[in-house]
Amino acid sequence: MTKNINRKHPIAKLINLIILLFVVVAMTFATIEFFARGWCQKAHGTPVDKNSSWELRTCAKYYWDMDLENLGRW
Q1: Every domain of the chain and the residues it spans
Q2: What is the pLDDT of residues 53-71, one digit of tens each?
Q3: How does DSSP assign 1-58, residue by residue?
């Protein structure tokens, strides 16, 4: 009798895989968000125009709530 008693059901394996993928995506997003917030806090106060780097424009749009379409207008 050489039965493998540690075998998992295929649906349990699939559920574990989905949970693992979700955790990896969430941790990746959290890490990127952490570094982006730090970079944006360092860059706060830097003037932004249409020729600025994409990183600076992204900070201005998403973190500082600037309207990049109407930078010089009221």
Answers
A1: 10-70
A2: 878 877 877 777 777 666 6
A3: ----TTPPPHHHHHHHHHHHHHHHHHHHHHHHHHHHHHHHHHHTT----TTS-HHHHH
